[in-house]
Every structure is written in C-alpha cells, then in structure tokens.
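Quick one:
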Amino acid sequence: MEETELTPQQQSLVTTPIGESISVFLEGPAGCGKTTVAVRRMLHLLEADVRADRILVWVPQRSLARPFIEVLRRPTVPAGTRVDVLSLDGLARRTVDLFWPLVAEEAGFADPTRRPVFLTLETAQYYMNHVLEPLVTEGLFGGVTVHRNRLVSQIIDNLNKAALVGFPHTDIGARLIAAWSGPSSRENVYQAVQRAASAFRGFCLQHNLLDFSLQVAVFMRHVWPQAWCRTYLLRRYHHLIADNLEEDIPVAHDLLRLWLQHAASALLVYDRDGGFRSYLGADPLGAHALADSCTQRVTLDESFVCSPDMEALGSTLHRQAGKVPGQRVAPSITDDTIEQTLRQIEVRFHPELVRGVADEVRRLVVDEQIPPDEIAILAPFVGDALRFALMTDLERRGVPVRSHRPSRALRDEPAVRCLLTLAQLAHPQWEMCPPQQDMAQALLQAIEGLDWVRAAYLTGIVYRVRDGHPSLASFDQLRPNVQERITFVLGPRYGDLLRWVEAYGSQPAVPLDHFIGALFDEVLARPGYGFHRRLDAAAAATDLIESVRKFRWTLDVASVDELGMRYVRMVDSGVLAAQYVRQGQRATRNAVFIAPAYTFLTENSPVDYQFWLNINSPAWGRRLYQPLTHPFVLTRHWLPERKWSEEDEFQTGQSMLLRVVLGLLRRCRKQIYLCTSELNPRGREERGPLQQWAQHLLREAHRALENGRV
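Output:
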C-alpha cells in the first residue's frame, strides 16, 4: 500500500514524532494494515534522514521479513540503503560471532581460540544423529515407536524450547515427566531424552558447534547481560520496529521489553488472532503483555483484505465456537453471505475430490482468468500421496502449481532424490549404488515427457551395478524395438543426459553443490528436461544447493568425495529440510500454492480463493503426535505441578483450530471452498470439528432465514 492510500489513523501512526521516546503498541486482526504501517514507518524514518543502520526491524522468522526487504529494493529508495531486518536467531548469531573471544570460555566451549561453527537445522540433525547412535544401541528409546529422524528432530526441538522459553536444558526431562499422566514406562523415555539432549549439548561445547538453541542461550546468558554488549546494541539501533510479535518467542519478548526503555522510537505490531507458531515456541500471551511497556496503545479494525461477508462469517464462527453447549447463537449472516463466501465440493470417494478440486481450479484460472497465485489449496497435513495427486492433476490441466511442507524430509522431495541419484551415478568412486526404483524415478523426474512405465522399462534394461559401481548403457546400444518403445523423442534426451554425466566423470571432482548447480543449469533446466517448466523442482534444486554448501562449510573434511558421500548418507537418514528463504518468492511464482494450513498462515500472504481439503478430517483440530516433546508443557504458562489431561488436549485443539480458521478467513478476499469426501483415502468415514462447525453454521443461517430473523 502506497502512502496516498493510508487512512488518517494509519498516517498518524507512520508519522509519530521521532526522538521523543514514544513507543506504540499496534494491534488488530490480520488484514487491517498493521504491516503496511510498519513498512511505511520504516520509510518515514529514512525520509526523515534517520541513518539506515540506526533502524532495527524485528521479525519472528525470516519469511516475515519479505515486505520490508521488498520495499527497500524500490527505485525510490536510495541505492545502498540497508536496514537490518532480523529475528532473534539472526541477531544472536551476529553478536555471538562478534563477541566470541570474550564469551566463549565463560560459556563453556572447549577451545575459545577457535572460531565457532554455526549449524543449520540439517547439520544439527547430522551431529545429533551421531550423538544418538550409542544411546539407541543401548535400547534407551525402546519404549516408544518413532522413526530415527523424528527422534532426532524432537530432541532438538526440546533443546530449542528450553532456550526460547529461558529454562536450563537440564530441566527438559523433569518438566516432561512432571506433566505426564500416562503409564510410568514413559518416564524412562523422558530420562533418555534428557540424557540425549545433555550429550548433544556437551558435544557442541566440545567442538565449538552452535545449533539454534545454543546460539540463543549463549546470547541471552552470556552476551546480552554484559554491559558493553547492551551498550553496543542500544547505541547502534535507536529506532525499533517489531512485526508479528504474537509469533515470536518468550526470550525475544524479554529482550524487546528492555530495549523499549532506551529506544528513541518504537512500533510494536501484534496480530490479535495470531500465535500459529505456538508449537514452535511462539508466545502470544507474552507478546500482548508488551503493551504495558509502551507509551501508547492503538487498535486497527477495518480489514483491507476480506469482504464484509467474510468478516461476518468469521465473527459468527467466533461466537459460535465460544458459546455454552446447548445455547443457540443468533448468526449475523444470511444465505446471501453464505453464497458469496462459501462453496462446497462434496463427493463420496477421495480421488473424486482431488479431481473435483483440480477441475474447479482450472475453471477459475482458465475461464475466470484468476491469477494462479491467488489460489491456495490447504489441508491440515499434506502427505506425499495427496501432494502428488493434486500436483499431477493440476499440471495435467495446464495449471502451474507449487507446494511447501516445512516438516518434509529432504529425501522425500522427488527433485532432490533425482539430483542425488544422478550424483551417485556421476561419482562411481563413492561406491553408492541407488536402488533400481530410485534410478527409474530419477529418469522420470529428469526427462520431460517420460512416463513411469517407460522409465521403469528403460531402467530395467540400461541400469547395471558392477563391482560396486553404478552405470547406465547408452540409448544407441539398445535394440531397435526397445528404442521404438522408448520413442526417438525421449531416447535422445536420455542419451544427452548420460553423455553429460559421463563427461563430468572424466574431469576432476568438484564439490557436490557445484556439481548439482552445473547439472541443473546445463541439462535439467533446459527445454526437454524435467526441471524446465516445474517451479517446485527448480526451487528444490536451489534449496539443495544451499543445503550442500552449508554442510560443506560446517564439516572439517578436506576430501570432496568424502563430503559428498556424507551428505548423501545424511539425506538417506531422513533429516528434515531447513528453511531457505528466497526473497520475493511469492511475487515471482505465479502458481497455485499447496500447503498445510499452518504453513500458509505463517507466510502471511492473502489470496482470493482458498480450498480447504478434507474438512471432515479430525486432523483439523488435532496437533501432530510428538511423544518425545510437548509444545504446551514446555512453556512459561504451564504450571510445573500440573498433569496434562485429555481435557487440556481437547481445549487446546479447539482453541488452535479457531485461531487457524479465523486466520484463514482473514487472509481470503473472495471465496472459500469447503471440500470433503465421505470416505477418506483409506476408505473410512471421518467426522471432525471443522465439519461440525461448518454444518452448524449453515443450519443456523437457514433456520434464521426460515424464522424471518434475517
């Protein structure tokens, strides 16, 4: 939103006097222009000749920095203007690295004279897996069934929670045990979790490794308490702008509370119905308490995103969800409101639902000329089967599509699997031989137009493993009838790919990220190959290159081949992918977005149309099962002596579902499709809270119409 489009209230917030120690706490629902005010406030400070390096923009995660970074790239902003847009982990990393010689010994690192190594999520999982190996061999985790990659990620998550909430990592096990009300055997598992967390922390201190939790802990306990560090930061940043406070963590709120006492000006922005990252440590209650530390409190209510009908639907749903059981709530919506805001896609079988959604999306894009990036397809969880079916059906209809699942393992991304399989083929000296099915899948992904039947048939003929080395035969060596089955369009594409791989093998080895970049640029991104038209595959390749590069920087291994092999083994172990943010990615990707509802909400990018899949699924009101951690017990608001009960689980699920639904409504401009099939993908009937809310809402609206109340 440009300055001329600001309301008088917004304009007054943007032009709040500078240098008078005025701090403003701005709150309101999503879509009312709060971030717009924050962005314009930043520009106003720059226009008032405030030095860019005196402004700090604070966000809870890097993806939420996009609006600020994009506006700084406008031609109207002087070239070279650089405002620091940071989250707590970004600030912690900078300052820990800067003051390392002064705090390393006090923080307990074994070699304070050696530079620290900052870990990504992936490299942290790599080292945690190494630490866990002897503990798993001992059978310490035999009391719970969980995949190794989930075991690794949940212990890392526990360490993160301890750092973000601000309690010692040695208290993790005791807190989990104190809240557990089930069989006593689980207490042994929590003790093993504590042992693993302590062992990993000791390993990091011994080798100067800093994962996310240790970066934050060192900053909060050893850097920030020092007077010279606080003086450095407070003198550097005079003006503070903090956006999406409700998604930030408790120790960040502690830091901001102290910072407010010294800032020349401050604007704190709070989304009234946010807090979607609670499972990652977000503390909306603690964020709202910051209002007491500000000199002014301002509320914005008018939405610039959703229509009045959509707002009425959200208000009615909010009142309906909070009513006393058995009490009837008079809705503020009519049948016209329902018709304008909601549409339903109801079928019996789940494959019909996927086809129905794909058909309707195609109608919107082709017949109604709706830009694809104004459409989001959302579900509580997006499994591999659902993601593949939707993307295949949409691509078949000529609709560009992309997806994002933060909790997805690297090995589960087909494009990543393709690149690493071809890397193993190009490096026979690794003696890593992918299964025949992986090779067929790689060819299917790499060659445009190749179907699964031909890919499997071709692989069965050309793929061989001899003396521990994988190899492929050339297309020219195949019998004529085989060449005809593959076709003389696809065959030469396969041949060119193979020749590129063979030519690479005759040259000196290069780092794996260099190899992947060359393979993508020189072959796979070209016409006739699989990554040429697929935005998701290109994005996955970009993320993979960055992941490999950071892995290479982290490990102290001289051999290029050893690094490549270790990375492939790490991916095979099932590590979860780190988030690599490409600024402006939504603006440059004109594609339908498929994602879990939480992921869409944390991107904070409204769309015109939303499709809510499987609204009858109980997963809409249920958190992900995590037996080794607990996002609500490991908070500041949980009393240590309390047991977590089924009632706590139910009430928390209802509360989070209401937040999600209101968040989705307020990020939709025109229409929502409620999509359901009588039978789920496993052929079973389901009934969940979201479907019950929707049905009750519709019944109340129709009853009100019949009674003449609306």
